[in-house]
Amino acid sequence: MEILNHFYLAFSVALEPLNIFLCFLGCLIGTFVGVLPGLGPAASISMLLPITFKLPPVSAIIMLAGLYYGTMYGGSTTSILINVPGEAASVVTCLDGYQMARRGRAGPALGIAAFGSFIAGTFATLMIMIVAPSLASVALKFGPPEFVGLVFMGLTMVTYLSSGSMVKALMMAGVGLLISCIGIDIVTGRERLTLGIATIAGGFDIVPIVMGLFGISEVLLNLERSGAVREVFQTKIEHLLPNRQDWKDSSGPILRGSLLGFFLGLIPGGGGLIASFISYTVEKRVAKNPENFGKGDIRAVAGPETANNAGAQGAFIPMLTMGIPCNVVIAILLGALMIHGVSPGPRLLIDHPKIFWGVVGSMYIGNAMLLVLNLPLIGMWVKLLKVPYAYLFPLIFLFCLIGAYTVGNNIMDVYIMILFGILGYLMKKYDYEPAPLVLAFVLGPMFENAFRQSLIISGGSLVIFFTRPIAAVFVIVSFVLLASPLILRLLGRQRPGVGLKN
Amino acid sequence: MYFYCPPIDIGGQVGLELMVETTGGFMRNRDIVSSLVWLGVGIVFLIGGLHAGLFRRGIPGPGLLPFIVALSLMALSLMVFFPALTGKKEEASGVAENFFPERDSFKKIFFGLIALFLYGVALEYIGYIATTFIFLLFTSRLMERAKWQTPLILAISTAILSYLLFVVLLEVQLPRGVLGT
């Protein structure tokens, strides 16, 4: 029984005292970040990344991963209680979760969100154990042309599923690739595209970029509005344990949400928001009485909350098995692995089985911890919502500043972060999304390397991407996705991502 | 019970109920401006790519990928530029009419950014604790012209606690400055 061996390995690493503690810490901070509107997982993971430098790689990833899926739990709390999503993936939960709270059913809403998340998280972790090894062995057979095709398809997918203009998303992916090219060329060792500026000769680091684009810019956007005064819904939170009828109603949505979320999580750009959005649509379609949706239906909380957790967990698979990040948070985790000297990709399972299985094992433990953190301690998190933003944002600024400085003990990283903060702010104003930029930036060096190797193999001909069957499939799928907005427009339809705008 | 809550970003949109649909000329101007900026960025990298060398003895050189990507970026910018110019706006965008939503928005952003830059400058001269204290005292009054007590307590306690956390507990290297902290 191979899977039993895997379980043994997973828990033997995850149950080491240091790892249990860090997993708990990650989940705790994650819930905190999830509850606080205006601070997302991407910025907070990059803030904490520098302090994990001294930890063993597996412990660092365990903590940061815990933080990531912890935010998925925490995000639902604010959606339900104050109709403000704590982070992006919980937007859909606002629709019915808040209505449930207004009808005095905040308890069951919070309860089903937490239990659903737990079930989805555990299910998706189990799926990782089953799927990842075989996927990694397939990916091991990939040569440079296949890798180029895969990354190309991944980036196209992200732009295709982005919520705004696909052309603009593609532009941002291009900008990300260009930024990743700045600095020393790995093949020839020559400096390029630096405009003679010595500071950037070594290239950019991911931490200041992500903190600028997702942390600083976010604060700037919040800063310019005095902000609406919102009402915390005055209600006693009781009956956190959903009753028999709630469970009966929710079992279907939870099951579908887990499956849907998991598979969407595997697609670049597919997890989180999209997963929860599609789950909501599906539940509404299969419901016998869809008119209850939007009026506080527990199914509309159970499904999306489950889907975003399964998606968050599923997103680890492409990263751990192929080195492809599906979202910005995973991209930072990938960066974290590389900083720790571990190269993510198909060889990770063979070269560092302890890291892979340790992280997977910690997910079981983390999900259980989060259930405890979220249900009995809900009152504590609600109190946290009362911290005024006027005092909160200076602290976010401060943590970003320290985080950026400590990446390389270099003050220049602080200035780079601020510049990317301004860039992110302007991008938001001009309707450009930062996520494709970050993903392309992270994938850039690997992509370029594989691209150049492919051209060396083929003697400079691009035809190699079409003559190798697997690469050809990836490239053709990408071109179909690129052309599809045009095709869909001819048919009078819209891309799935566009629907999220309304 | 009331409390303050910032509008938060949810991936390109501004909150379910805060969505403002505008299809007016302002957004179009934005697309014109932004696409021209990205076109310029594309040109810079195109030249940079050519400079670094596209091919060397038949083997792809350091400039090849930047060159191709820059070329694509330029093409894509034009795909944003021309529809904006001719007034064919495909997708309505959820951005408010004015660049700054409120009258004193610019002031807050400007001082916020100044504070960030000055933090970087001051950190190496007067050290972590002093810089952090001044920074927090200033920024926590940026949004609300409130009394001095709360910002003062916040600034002192955070400066000291975070110093203990980062420097003493986590042994993070932070500049010491002239004050030795």
Task: Give structural attributes.
heterodimer, A: 502 residues, mainly alpha, 71% helix, B: 181 residues, 2 domains, two-stranded antiparallel ribbon, 59% helix, flat
In terms of topology, how is this protein built?
The complex is a heterodimer of chains A (502) and B (181).
Chain A: H1 2-14, H2 17-35, H3 41-48, H4 57-82, H5 91-102, H6 106-139, H7 144-160, H8 166-181, E1 183-184, E2 191-192, H9 206-223, E3 229-231, H10 244-265, H11 273-286, H12 299-314, H13 316-322, H14 328-339, H15 348-351, H16 353-374, H17 378-384, H18 389-408, H19 411-429, H20 435-458, H21 464-467, H22 469-490
Antiparallel strand pairs in A: 1-2
Helix pairs in contact in A: 1-16, 2-4, 2-16, 3-4, 3-9, 3-14, 3-18, 4-5, 4-6, 4-12, 4-14, 4-16, 5-6, 5-12, 6-10, 6-12, 6-13, 6-16, 7-8, 7-20, 7-22, 8-20, 9-18, 9-19, 10-11, 10-12, 11-12, 14-20, 18-19
Chain B: E1 2-4, H1 25-52, E2 55-56, E3 59-60, H2 64-86, H3 105-126, H4 128-139, H5 149-169
Antiparallel strand pairs in B: 2-3
Helix pairs in contact in B: 1-2, 3-4, 4-5
Give a short overview.
With 502 residues, chain A is mainly α. Chain A has helices at 2-14, 17-35, 41-48, 57-82, 91-102, 106-139, 144-160, 166-181, 206-223, 244-265, 273-286, 299-314, 316-322, 328-339, 348-351, 353-374, 378-384, 389-408, 411-429, 435-458, 464-467, 469-490; strands at 183-184, 191-192, 229-231. Chain A has one domain (2-490).
Structure commentary:
- The complex is a heterodimer of chains A (502) and B (181).
- Chain A is built from 22 helices and three strands.
- Chain A is an all-alpha fold.
- Chain A has one domain (2-490).
- In chain A, strands 1-2 form a two-stranded antiparallel sheet.
- In chain A, β1 and β2 (191-192) form a beta hairpin.
- In chain A, α4 runs antiparallel to α6 (106-139) and α11 runs antiparallel to α12 (299-314).
- Chain A starts with a helix and ends in a 12-residue tail after the last helix.
- Chain B is mainly α and 181 residues long.
- Chain B has two domains: 2-93, no CATH class; 105-169, no CATH class.
- Helices cover 59% and strands 4% of the residues of chain B.
- Chain B has helices at 25-52, 64-86, 105-126, 128-139, 149-169; strands at 2-4, 55-56, 59-60.
- In chain B, α1 (25-52) runs antiparallel to α2 (64-86), α3 runs antiparallel to α4 (128-139) and α4 packs antiparallel against α5.
- Chain B is flat.
- Classes of the chains: A mainly alpha (502), B mainly alpha (181).
- Chains A and B meet through α5, α8, α9, β3 and α18 of A and β1, α1, β2, β3 and α2 of B.
